[in-house]
């Protein structure tokens, strides 16, 4: 079954610690995205990548870093510089169809990050 | 960039119709999407509409698009308790080939 796998489902971070959230897809999608969701709020874009070895900052990239060394994988690191990391993190992927514009995003089940 | 707005909350009785509204700003948007999020889960794509259509029906779901007013709505017929969730409208941010999401409408279905 094709899909997007995020792990872990729950993650706890200590002060001053970096943590990495995993996102893997086997849909052969070109583009991948990371969003942050706070309670009662919509999704805010952290980083996105349209192609391997390339990625762009979204609206709230400060305190986060990503890599895209493989098409299937787009890990997100929450660094100690992110002072308020408690949130629900969602990874998504899509086919890149700039000609038709129909590129719905498919989502993983999310990782809930909390501060210890 | 694109800006997408939705009302935050809707409460209906089981069996009634629900209508969730959304407005967007970028008139060049080609496809517009509706997603559903159940508690503690990711977003599930419900349906989408192409901008040259006024309406799209898919079983209990009807999407209406008023392109002139940049207004999108999702109607759920015969709403069930299992429809209780947060519904997100999304439109393409063509400048960066990503989607911009509204803040989500929480639908509460009373038995």
Q: Please give the most extensive interface between any two protein chains, plus how many residues each contributes.
A: A-B, 30 and 25 residues
Strand content of the residues of chain A, in percent? Answer: over 45%
Distance between the termini of chain A: 35 Å
Helix content of chain B: under 10%
Give the C-alpha Rg of chain B: 13 Å
Structural write-up:
The complex is a heterodimer of chains A (116) and B (111). In chain A, a hairpin with a 5-residue loop joins strand 4 and strand 5. With 116 residues, chain A is mainly β. Chain A has strands at residues 4-7, 10-13, 19-25, 31-37, 43-51, 54-57, 64-66, 76-78, 87-94, 106-107, 111-115. Helix content of chain A is 0%, strand content 48%. The radius of gyration of chain A is 14 Å and the shape is globular. In chain A, the strands form 2 sheets. In chain A, strands 2, 4, 5, 6, 9, 10 and 11 form a 7-stranded mixed sheet that branches. Chain B is mostly beta strands and 111 residues long. Helix content of chain B is 0%, strand content 59%. Chain B has no helices and 11 strands. In chain B, the strands form 2 sheets. In chain B, strands 2, 4, 5, 9, 10 and 11 form a 6-stranded mixed sheet that branches. In chain B, strands 1-3-8-7-6 form a 5-stranded antiparallel sheet, with no helix packed on it. Chain B is globular and about 45 Å long. The model of chain B has no long low-confidence stretch (mean pLDDT 92). The interface between A and B is medium-sized, with 30 and 25 residues.
Give the SSE map.
The complex is a heterodimer of chains A (116) and B (111).
Chain A: E1 4-7, E2 10-13, E3 19-25, E4 31-37, E5 43-51, E6 54-57, E7 64-66, E8 76-78, E9 87-94, E10 106-107, E11 111-115
Chain B: E1 4-6, E2 9-13, E3 18-24, E4 31-37, E5 43-50, E6 55-58, E7 61-66, E8 71-76, E9 85-93, E10 98-101, E11 105-110
Parallel strand pairs in B: 2-11
Antiparallel strand pairs in B: 1-3, 3-8, 4-5, 4-9, 6-7, 7-8, 9-10, 9-11
């Amino acid at each position: 079954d094709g899909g997007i796998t995020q792990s872990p489902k729950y993650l706890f971070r200590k002060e001053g610690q970096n943590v990495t959230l995993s996102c893997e897809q086997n849909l052969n999608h070109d583009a991948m995205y990371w969003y942050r969701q706070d309670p009662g709020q919509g999704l805010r874009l952290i980083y996105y990548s349209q192609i391997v070895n390339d990625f762009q900052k979204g609206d709230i990239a400060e305190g986060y870093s990503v890599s895209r060394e493989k098409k299937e994988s787009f890990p997100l690191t929450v660094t100690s510089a992110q002072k308020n990391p408690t949130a629900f993190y969602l990874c998504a992927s899509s086919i890149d169809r700039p000609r038709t514009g129909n590129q719905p995003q498919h989502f993983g089940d999310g990782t809930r990050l909390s501060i210890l | 960039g694109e800006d997408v707005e939705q009302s935050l909350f809707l409460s209906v009785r089981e069996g009634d119709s629900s209508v969730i509204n959304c407005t967007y700003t970028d008139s060049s948007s080609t496809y517009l999407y509706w997603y559903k999020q159940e508690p503690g889960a990711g977003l599930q794509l419900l349906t989408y509409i192409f901008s040259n259509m006024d309406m799209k029906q898919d079983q209990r779901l009807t999407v209406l698009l008023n392109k002139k007013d940049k207004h999108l709505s999702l109607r759920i017929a015969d709403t069930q308790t299992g429809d209780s969730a947060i519904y997100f409208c999304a439109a393409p941010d063509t400048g960066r080939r990503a989607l911009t999401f509204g803040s989500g409408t929480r639908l509460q279905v009373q038995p």
